From TrEMBL:
Signal sequence bounds: none
Swiss-Prot/TrEMBL keywords: ATP-binding, Helicase, Hydrolase, Nucleotide-binding
Region (Disordered): 36-58
Positions of ATP binding: 209-216
PANTHER family, sorted: DNA 3'-5' HELICASE, UVRD / RECB / PCRA DNA HELICASE FAMILY MEMBER
Protein name listed in UniProt: AAA family ATPase
Domain of life: Bacteria
InterPro entries tied to this protein: DNA_helicase_UvrD/REP, P-loop_NTPase, UvrD-like_ATP-bd, UvrD-like_helicase_C
Domain UvrD-like helicase ATP-binding: 188-621
Species whose genome carries this gene: Amycolatopsis acididurans
Length: 763
């Protein structure tokens, strides 16, 4: 590498940058005051017409959003500076600030703006006009350090071959103690990461990278970048970020708000079926069966099983007589209803109508016979047609309406083709070996079906959510009334949106970027949609409540863990297939997860996806990675671990369980972490026991490997790796995940010999 670091941090340099940074903070304060004043003004207005009230709501939400954004960028507002050969200078930070008194010159470039890009990409070989890149480190509002790089090919080689940008700032960031919450990496994004973050919006982008290569960080920064660059396109539909479990979502939860973005829905797949909380847990084997693509067929069969015909006939009392639905009539009705290809609950009306028609026909004939019973035959007069019905159309309609209103008839129809919810159907299915045998007989073996059987009142599990979603598609929902109501509201909103746009045009004082953009680009229709979003809920909040919501972009972390049924649900949420999938197929632990990207994606997009790879490990030091490499070789000898950025000089330690007191080792590790975090990672079978024994400390977590996925800790104590390996067909993958969670220290406590033989010699 050929980027020279200049001696820096001279008092003059620091003072100069402090002046500039202080000016930026004054500007930020002024913007905040102005947004606060506007918000207070909007809140103080009372009364007025419904339109005026709605306009006030829009203003209130706009200014609140802006205030939240301005507050979120307080820490590290400005973190970089570029000096170009022509003498120009640009400052880079978390949001854009402009000089309103002087021609709107940028005082601070948003990191996502195209002009800020050389900060992440420029190298000595390809400097893009940049002479010096400076990282500005701040603590609160004080400039504490500067790291400079001169991009000059003639400069002496610095000895690092990973092509890192801003190496000193990067290493300082990586050395920081972990707090249990992920931080943003906006000041030190590396070139290979930047290219992924700014990749185009459309299509399926797959990001493959080993542990610690920044996949999660990149995925989140990409969400922020896309929202900035394609705001108009994405603001109404929102962005969905999917993670493997709620611990992980809590871990990453602060990153997007710290980048000023709140309109993103973070969710697990298990949370994506509104109204259902998945608090139960499946066994590994049950989860695997539920995740199979074949479950789609089982569910379709289970729905078909709810569309019954009588063995022979059914009878129903009506108007002091008996009417009959025979098998042939019910079969014709069922064929007609199924022939519409509508979902079950919508096709139900077709079935019911057909049977009602048949019953009405019977009732009418019977009525006519009754009418003439005992009446002497009267000869027809000349020209009279003997086949003209005695009852006219009005009479027939009346009889049919009476049948339709009859409770007994209704019960009969429902016994053949009931209205049913996904929840009801799935509960009934899993509670009944008979129903399961009927729906899954040709698809699952008996032992596999037995894995699914459970009491009716069992709690929902994460693997149930995709099944419920599939059923919701198969069953459909008769929401014609709700639809009409929604359309009426949209018409009203569009009408006053015209008025709101006029008012925004007239408000000469409105200067913030958001509003300028609204005025420039929105037409009334789009504005109505946005206004609805603002005045009620954010896109993310609305999406969380609406199963049929489709997102503008979907980002999936740990994508290798998803089952085929999970994929079916997620693909429904993103018909545009504008998606970013990040993961590592060497870390797959879930029994229904995939081993290749091709297997995962081909059912949905064939080979229309683009692959980008991350190759540098920012988390785990080289000493620990050499142990992890031995585990990875057991997964597949052809796989290679990513290259670590750091060496710490601290070797992993190995002990036998019989020789140690776990409690005191944990205390030692907590002390060694020096205020940082420590995790005890153990096989699932030992989790309850270990969580009970180990002292409560907010810096300590006791976790199974599945729950530690995606997380990191300063120190990791790995207990009984043998049981992790034997506990699952993907045991070595799980062990590889466990070994790569530490940022500084790793200790392994063995309970047997086999795994020790592999790992001890390696590190
Ligand atoms: N450019 C960067 N600057 C500073 N820190 C970085 C950078 N890239 C990654 N990191 C840090 O490295 C660590 C690992 O990143 P991350 O969790 O995103 O990796 P990952 O690829 O998702 O890992 P895994 O697959 O093991 O879950 C995090 O602490 C992250 O903040």
């Amino acid at each position: 590498m050929s980027q020279k670091r200049e001696p820096d941090n001279s008092t003059d340099d620091l003072a100069g940058e402090q002046d500039y940074v202080s000016m930026l903070y004054r500007k930020l304060d002024a913007e905040r005051d102005s947004a606060q004043r506007r918000l207070t003004g909007a809140l103080e207005q009372t009364g007025g017409t419904p339109q005026a009230r709605s306009e006030r709501d829009v203003a209130t939400t706009t200014y609140s959003d802006r205030l939240a954004q301005l507050s979120s960028v307080e820490q590290g507002l400005c973190f970089g500076r570029l000096d170009f050969h022509e003498g120009e200078t640009a400052y880079i930070g978390r949001l854009g600030l402009f000089d309103e008194e002087g021609d709107y010159e940028p005082l601070l470039l948003d990191w996502r703006a195209p002009a800020a890009r050389p900060f992440y990409l420029a190298t000595a070989a390809s400097p893009d006009g940049v002479r010096r890149r400076r990282h500005i480190r701040t603590l609160s509002r004080k400039v504490v350090a500067l790291d400079d790089e001169i991009l000059d090919l003639r400069a002496e080689d610095q000895g690092h071959d990973l092509g890192l940008a801003g190496e000193a700032a990067l290493l300082a960031a990586l050395e920081r103690r972990r707090t249990g919450e992920m931080s943003d990496i906006v000041a030190t994004i590396q070139a290979e990461q930047d290219r992924i973050i700014r990749d185009e919006l459309n299509g399926v982008l797959v990001v493959q990278g080993g542990p610690g290569t920044g996949k999660t960080a990149v995925a989140l920064h990409r969400a922020a970048y896309l929202l900035y660059t394609y705001r108009q396109q994405l603001a109404t539909r929102g962005v969905l970020v999917v993670g493997p479990n709620s611990t992980f979502l809590r871990y990453i939860g602060q990153v997007l708000p710290s980048l000023g973005e709140t309109g993103v829905l973070l969710s697990t797949v298990g949370q994506l079926f509104p109204g259902v909380r998945a608090t139960g847990q499946d066994t590994r084997d049950a989860a695997e069966v539920k995740g199979r693509a074949a479950m789609a067929e089982v569910l379709a069969n289970a729905v078909a099983d709810r569309q019954q015909v009588p063995d022979d006939f059914l009878e129903v009392e009506f108007d002091d007589g008996i009417l009959r639905v025979d098998r042939a009539t019910a079969e014709r009705a069922r064929d007609k209803a199924r022939g519409t290809l509508r979902p079950h609950n919508l096709a139900r009306r077709v079935f019911h109508d057909f049977v009602l028609d048949a019953l009405a026909e019977q009732a009418t004939s019977r009525f006519e016979v009754d009418l003439f019973e005992g009446v002497p035959e009267i000869p027809l007069s000349e020209g009279e047609d003997p086949d003209v019905p005695v009852l006219d159309a009005g009479d027939r309609t009346e009889i049919r309406a009476e049948l339709a209103a009859s409770d007994t008839v209704g019960r009969l129809l429902d016994s053949l083709w009931p209205k049913i919810t996904p929840q009801r159907l799935l509960r009934d299915l899993f509670a009944s070996p008979g129903r399961l045998a009927s729906a899954a007989g040709g698809v699952l073996s008996e032992p596999e079906r037995e894995l699914l059987v459970r009491p009716e009142k069992s709690r929902w599990t994460p693997a149930d959510a995709p099944l419920l979603d599939e059923l919701a598609e198969l069953l459909g929902e008769d929401d014609s009334q709700r639809q009409a109501e929604r359309e009426r509201r949209q018409r009203e909103e569009r009408a006053y949106a015209e008025g709101v746009l006029d008012i925004l045009e007239q408000d000469e004082e409105i200067i913030d970027e958001e509003i300028l953009r609204v005025r420039d680009i929105l037409d009334a229709e789009l504005y109505a949609e946005r206004q609805q979003r603002r005045s009620e809920l954010t896109a993310a909040q609305r999406a969380a409540r609406d199963r049929k919501w489709t997102f503008g972009h979907v980002i999936i972390d740990e994508a290798q863990e998803l089952s085929p049924m999970d994929w079916r649900l997620l693909m429904r949420r993103c018909p545009s297939r504008s998606m970013t999938l990040v993961g590592d197929v060497a870390q797959t632990g879930a029994p229904a997860g995939a081993s290749t990207w091709h297997d995962m994606l081909s059912p949905y997009v064939e080979d229309r996806w683009r692959l980008r790879e991350l190759t540098v490990n920012y988390r785990t030091p080289a000493e620990i990675m050499s142990v992890a490499a031995a585990a990875l070789a057991e997964v597949d000898p052809a796989l290679r671990v990513p290259t670590s950025v750091r060496e710490t000089g601290v070797l992993p330690w190995h002990r036998r369980e019989a020789e140690v007191n776990l409690k005191s080792i944990v205390d030692d590790e907590l002390a060694a972490a020096d205020g940082g975090t420590v995790a005890v990672l153990c096989p699932a079978g030992r989790h309850a026991e270990l969580s009970g024994v180990l002292a409560e400390d907010e810096r300590l977590s006791v976790l199974t490997v599945a729950d530690a996925k995606g997380l990191e800790f300063d120190g990791v104590l790995l207990v009984a790796p043998e049981e992790i390996v034997t506990g699952s067909p993907r045991g070595w993958n799980d062990l590889y995940v466990a070994l790569t969670r530490a940022t500084k220290r790793l200790g392994i406590v063995y309970s047997g010999q086999g795994v020790a033989d592999v790992l001890v010699g390696a590190g």
